[in-house]
Structure formats: structure tokens, C-alpha cells
Amino acid sequence: MDLDLKIRGDRRLREVAAQIKAIGDKGLGREMAAGLRKATEPIKKGIRTSAEQTMPASGGYSALLSKSLRWRVNVRPGARIANVTLTTTADGTKEKRDLGRLEAGELRHPVWGRSRKLKSGKRKSNPWATTTIRAGFHKRGTDKAADVAEKEMAEVLDGLAAKLAGG
Fold first, then answer.
1. How many CB atoms are closer than 10 A to CB 161?
2. Mind listing the domains of the chain with CATH numbers?
3. What radius of gyration do the chain's Cα atoms show?
4. pTM for the whole thing?
């Protein structure tokens, strides 16, 4: 399960996007999208740090999860609503990790050294156990970095507004 963070654009984002569209300069549109994507870096770092601090270090899950975190940033400057969406995913060995359950405070994991013998004589892989962990690693990571990211996004928009006013 993926976790999303939507940052609703303020009036300034909509105005700058509308001015860029009116001019028809695709280069400025790409520059705005790239700047807004770059402004989400503090949030990504905050999520990774929170995951490293929250997840159990014994057994190596903390390092494993922080290395497998991936993000997708979607910038949609619209006339009425402008959004920057940051989607967090984590790759596992066979499928994506269930970040929703981790956010809720549940860590499912196989138990090392435990397996069952089936009637056919074959061994079945070890059963899964659930460990309770501190909930809200994603929310804590986004909350800590939100102010810094907001300032960086404002700087990007101010820079583009100055370019549009001067050019």
C-alpha cells in the first residue's frame, strides 16, 4: 500500500501556473515542476529519518526499510486547484511493503528458524508474526519537514513570478 501526501497549492501557485500557460513557455512550466519536485526533498529526508528511528534496529528492519523507500512526485498546476502529490512506496523482495500497516503500528515479519512440516514430508516456510511498533512514522516525517518544504516551494514560486514580471 502506498502512502500519499497532498500539498494543496495556494493562490500564488495557481496564478504563476496560469501566467506560464498564458505565455505558452513550456520551459518555464518544466522549471516550475522541477523546482517543486526538488522542494519535496526535505519531506523525503524526514520520512526516511523517521523510518530509521521508528522501525526496530534489531534484525535490520530499520535499515532495510529506509533503503527500500521510493517516492513519486506529481505536480498538477490547475486553474482551480493546484496540487503537489508525494507518493511513498517501499519495495519488498516479492511485492511492495505494506506501508499502511507500518503507519498503523503493525510490523508483519517471518520468524527466523521456525517452520512447519507438512503431511507430505515437505517443510513449509516459516509462519508470520506481528510485532507492535510505534505508529505514525510517515506522518512524523512529513510534519517535521513541512515548514522547510513550504519555504522552498515559496522560493520557487517567487523566483518564477519575478521572471514572469521581468520578462
1. 14
2. 3-96+136-166 (3.30.300)
3. 21
4. 0.83
| 124 burial type by CB count under 10 A (0-12 exposed, 13-18 middle, 19+ buried) | exposed
Pairing mode, strands 123-124 and 116-117 = antiparallel
Residue position matching grid coordinates 520551459:
27
Per DSSP, the residues of 15-46 read HHHHHHHHHT-HHHHHHHHHHHHHHTHHHHHH
DSSP string over 84-149: EEEEEEEB-SSSB--HHHHHHTEEEEEPTT--EE-TTSPEEPPPEEEEE--S-HHHHHHHHHHHHH
Instruction: Quick: pLDDT tens for 84-105.
Output: 899 999 998 888 999 999 999 9
C-alpha–C-alpha distance, residues 107 and 57, integer Å: 13
